[in-house]
Amino acid sequence: MCLGIPGEVIEINADQPDLAKVDVSGVRRLINIGLLTDDPPVPGDWVLIHVGFALSKIDEREAAAAMEFLEGIGQAYEDEINALKESVIE
Amino acid sequence: MRFVDEFRDADKAHALAAKIAALCEPGRQYKLMEVCGGHTHTIYKHGLEDYLPESITLVHGPGCPVCVIPMGRVDDAIHLASQPDVIMTSFGDMMRVPGSGGSFFDANAEGTNIRMVYSPLDSLKIARQNPDKRVVFMAIGFETTAPSTAMTMLRAAAAGLTNFSVFCNHVTIIPAIKAILDSPDLRLDGFIGPGHVSTVIGCRPYEFIAASYGKPVVVAGFEPLDILQSIYMLMVQLSQGRSEVENQYSRVVPWDGNLVALKAIGETMELRPYFEWRGLGFISHSALQVREKYAAMDAERLFQVPGVRVADPKACQCGEVLKGVLKPWECKVFGTACTPETPIGTCMVSPEGACAAYYNFGRMNRTRVAEAEVARS
What we know:
The complex is a heterodimer.
Chain A (H helix, E strand, L loop, with lengths): L4 E8 L6 E6 L2 E6 L13 E5 L2 E6 L1 H14 L1 H12 L4
Antiparallel strand pairs in A: 1-2, 1-4, 2-3, 4-5
Helix pairs in contact in A: 1-2
Chain B lengths: L1 H7 L1 H14 L6 E7 H9 L10 E8 L7 H11 L4 E5 L13 H6 L4 E3 L3 H10 L4 E8 L4 H14 L4 E7 L2 H10 L7 E4 L2 H6 L5 H7 L3 E3 L4 H16 L5 E3 L11 H10 E3 L2 E4 L3 E4 L3 E3 L8 H4 L15 H6 L30 H8 L4 H11 L1
Parallel strand pairs in B: 1-2, 1-7, 3-4, 3-5, 5-6, 7-8, 8-9
Antiparallel strand pairs in B: 10-13, 11-12
Helix pairs in contact in B: 2-11, 3-15, 7-12
């Protein structure tokens, strides 16, 4: 749970604008973007996600580096992605 | 790949290592603490210590949220989960942490219903789907994670959910750093500041370390080159006799942190008078509890919590490892009685724990084994 994982914002939820669909390594889930209300992300932006919440906006270069780092750490990242797949945020 | 190479380039790493070595004063020993478990992970994974001169020692700090939870709180959580009609939700990392009578997994084998969730928000769906149950979220983590719990509470309040509560174990990093600075066991020269925590709290809270203790702090990213760059920045400060807070990770960490996140924490939680940390003992104002305004979501008010203090197993030296006094391999049970499969202490449970990181990446070279043997004898 301690990881921050990069995801690309795909769309903002029309009914609940504090939720957004993101793509993390091909897994698409809803996350909460309520912590970024001072500078809300738009589709195409990258965000650093921690336990279902976008913590900060990051640029694509940072996202690529973070992803490479996470894929390199193995089990902990696989556990995180598997946990994300089970997520039912609504 | 071209993005990534920028953070991984071996030539750049060697160049930085040479610049770091050039800044070392002959005969002086440097101890730098990386506070965050994520940094510990990178350091072991990439063998960064092998790039550093012998006179620089990296000391691993207490910044692993799973590792600092004392056994008594695990017991309290299992007690809560054992109450009638309770479903407890928890991050997966907590499931194997041993309490005095076993872990959450062991408790589930005995009949509790402790479910792994990815996000505290997942607990809300479980609460909606089980209106006749009481859903308790086992909240752990530093300031990185506390805003997620706070936002979840605000969402539950807005939705009028009445069967969701939080067992709050959120801890705050600054008092732990202060406890380490005040500890007579350890003399540190500087700090590699935590990355993700700082996205929330910003860099200002570290200023007392520079101003009152005269130690430099550099908030760092998680790539190998980020950490080497941060060590270089610390060494530049030390060589010039400066102590300031600098932000190496400004591409992610804003100097003032995330004000929305801080406001959400402040709305729902307040400082506890004191909290027990594994290994560090009781530290004043070092953790968060649910504010009275949200008493209906505070598991500690809704249920009787035993709150019994449980001493760590005698063989376990997590406390010394968390304070940076011992290196993981210097612990008496490291890699023998205590392994990631059968952990005795928390540092071996979490992948961010110093012991698990060291065990998994096996960076034990001969010099260090020899050092450990000298230390033990």
